[in-house]
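Question thread 4412

I'm putting together a teaching handout and wanted feedback from people who do this every day. The idea is simple: show students a protein as raw sequence, then show them the structure tokens that encode its fold, then repeat with a second protein so they can compare. Below is the first pair exactly as I plan to print it.
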Amino acid sequence: MSLVDLVTAKLFCQISHGQEDDVLQVLIDAAEEYVQEETGLYLHDGDGTVTELLDGGGVELWPTKRPINSISSIQDAESEYAEVTDWKNTRIRILHASGGVKWANGIQRWRVAYDAGYGPEGAPAGIKHAVLDLVYRAYKSRGGKGHQSAAGHGYDWQGLDISDIAKRLRKYGMKARIG
């Protein structure tokens, strides 16, 4: 995923050389992972097309990628992929259009093809700004409280004071509404 490109991050961090491009890219990736984990949003490089098999039996289907931007098809895997057309997209779950009707029961019964999440072109400015703020703070404090994981992937955000960024991200959150 890459909502924020290296050039934009370098401008935001006021970096004019290329000596730390690899470090900066790790911080961009880690910041985007943090935003994704914190909000429950699906962030991608530009193709948000998803197809997955979902369990039935309830009044809702719960795709794993959010927000659901559009639904291409819903098919019943136990009826030779008969297409269902009476549904309602709530951006985090799928309901029967007739309200209160349960989806037929079955593990991985419903094949759902949909477009989800945010790519570089469609992401809200507030999410991109949060990523840039995280990258800036991690870059400025490198070698300090925050640190890259031992495996070389990700970043430990607990050492930095990012409570203001986490607070700004709450309005985009999809995790808190689930359940």
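The second pair follows. I'd like the answer to focus on this one:
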Amino acid sequence: MKLLRYVKVKWIKNGTFEPNPSSCVHQTVTINPVHGFTEQSTPLEILRAILTDEIVDSIVLESNRFVAQVKSSNPKAFTDWIPLTSNEFMNFWALNLLMGIVQKPCIKDYWSTNELLSTPIFGKTMSRNRLFWSKTILRYPKT
């Protein structure tokens, strides 16, 4: 697995900045086998080791419980809400991570059908409104 190395740059007052090209080169970082990961481990394997099924199920349970509590005190709230599933939560996570890789000027642009802005995987995975509502209702279990 390759990780980027962060480089500290020091600015000198009234001086000129001369970047060191070698400081921007990717370097291989050794992975500690104590954690069970190897250089062949995928980012998904690492994520799933941290975000286990048990944790995902707890988040989904608490989030759906939150919606039920809101609906009980305000019957007009979340009228069309369909309970969140574990699979949908993982899709939500994936889309949010992808937003960090594929950057757009506005969140709505991820669902744009304009040929210049289109990123079809977003619309195929989850509707824009569902992602927004999911972000609103997410609740994490108290530890």
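Top answer:
Good format. For the second protein you could add a caption like this: The beta strands are 2-3, 27-28. The chain has one domain: 34-137.
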